[in-house]
Amino acid sequence: MITRCGGYPNVPLLGTQGAINYNPELASQQAGYPMVRAPLQEALTPFVLEGSQAHKGEHHKKIQHAWTNIIRKGVAWRTRSCGVSPSYKTWLEQRVHLVGLPWGSIQHQAQETQAYEVHETLRVEELEGTLEQMKTEQGMLKRKLETALEESRQERRLSDDFSKKARGEKESRLRIGRFLKAVTAEREQLKEAVVALKSREAEQEDELRGLRERVLLLEEELMAAKLFKEHLQNQRRYNLLALVKACGKADEAESQLEELKETLESWKQRCQDIADEVEIQVRAATTDTQFWKDRYIKLAWLANQALLDIPRKLCTTEDVVDPTRTLREIREFLERCRKLYDRMKELSAPP
Question: Residue ranges of the DUF7745 domain (predicted)?
């Protein structure tokens, strides 16, 4: 039997027109289970949502989530019975008067059956509580036993550690004895080493004297080297001055060379310009020559045509002229034309 869902104290129902709740614990007597205690006030609080409000917002999600966690009761109530406890009976009478139900009176079962069923149910609950308490005590005793066992294990471990430490101390004492013997032997060796060091120090002092003498010689050589270095530096300065002068002359010569290069480039450019101008003039002269050559050929052709045509015309005119009737000017013109033709013929004749 479903008694509640999720975080609700009862069962929420979601419909097409809204949402409500109901309390199945009030119907447990009809299902055949005794009413041992009065229901809680929280379970009787009404829950009503109307219209589309039930299908939106937080309530809709909460109801959906509640139906994923359904809580049922049946076996937990143990004996099936329709009996009620006195506390439930008192609550029911108060509820009837408060709500104003139209019942005349509440029907009751036989007192003996009701008392037996209720007492049996209460006895079962007491036994269950006692059983839970015994289980709790058993768990506590079990934990104490485990603690005691752990303490005994720790004591055993400590005793083992103590014995190991004792053995370790014994071994350390033996090691210390061996170490002391080794220290004594090393002390003798150190004494011998000190004697050897003293003799070596004497030898080192002799070597130190020789090194000091060598240092003095090296200092003298160093002074000579410094003097030679100063001489080289002076010579280097002189050479640098000479080099600077030579560089100045070289720069001057280079500047003159640059000027000559610029002059040469300017002359080269001028020559190029003159050559371009001459080429342009040659092209123009060639064009003019070709033009005048064509004109000369045409003129020569006309002259040749004239030389061929003038004699015929002149002969025809001379045949027509009457010496007695023709004017003297016309005759003179014809003679001049004859002379001109003869002159042109002489000039055009090949050499």
Answer: 2-96
Domain count, the chain: 2
Q: What is the residue range of 311's domain?
A: 306-350
Q: Which of 42, 75, 108 is the last residue of a domain?
A: 75
Is 290 part of any domain? Answer: no
pTM of the model: 0.28
What is residue 112's predicted lDDT score, i.e. its pLDDT? 47
The mean of the pLDDT values for the chain is 77
d(CA 315, CA 341): 12
HSE, CB side, 13 Å, CA atoms: give it for residue 181.
Answer: 5
Positive or negative, the CA dihedral 187, 191, 194, 200 is negative
Q: Cβ distance 46 to 40 under 8 Å?
A: no
Dump pLDDT digits (tens) for 262-314: 888 888 888 888 888 888 888 888 888 888 888 878 877 777 776 667 777 77
Q: Is the residue at 105 inside a domain?
A: no
Residue 229 Rama label (left phi>0; alpha psi -120 to 50; beta): alpha
Give per-residue pLDDT as tens, 184-238. 888 888 888 888 888 888 888 888 888 888 888 888 888 888 888 888 888 888 8
> Tokens at residue 139, please?
């768990």
Query: Looking at 75, 101, 129, which one is the last position of a domain?
Result: 75
Domain assignment present for 131: no
Residue 41 lies in a domain: yes
Average of pLDDT values for 248-265? 85
What local confidence, expressed as pLDDT, does residue 191 receive?
83
Contact 46, 19 (CB under 8 A): no
Render the burial of 7-37: b for 16+ CB within 10 Å, e for the rest: ebbbbbebeeeebbbebbbeebeeeebbbbe
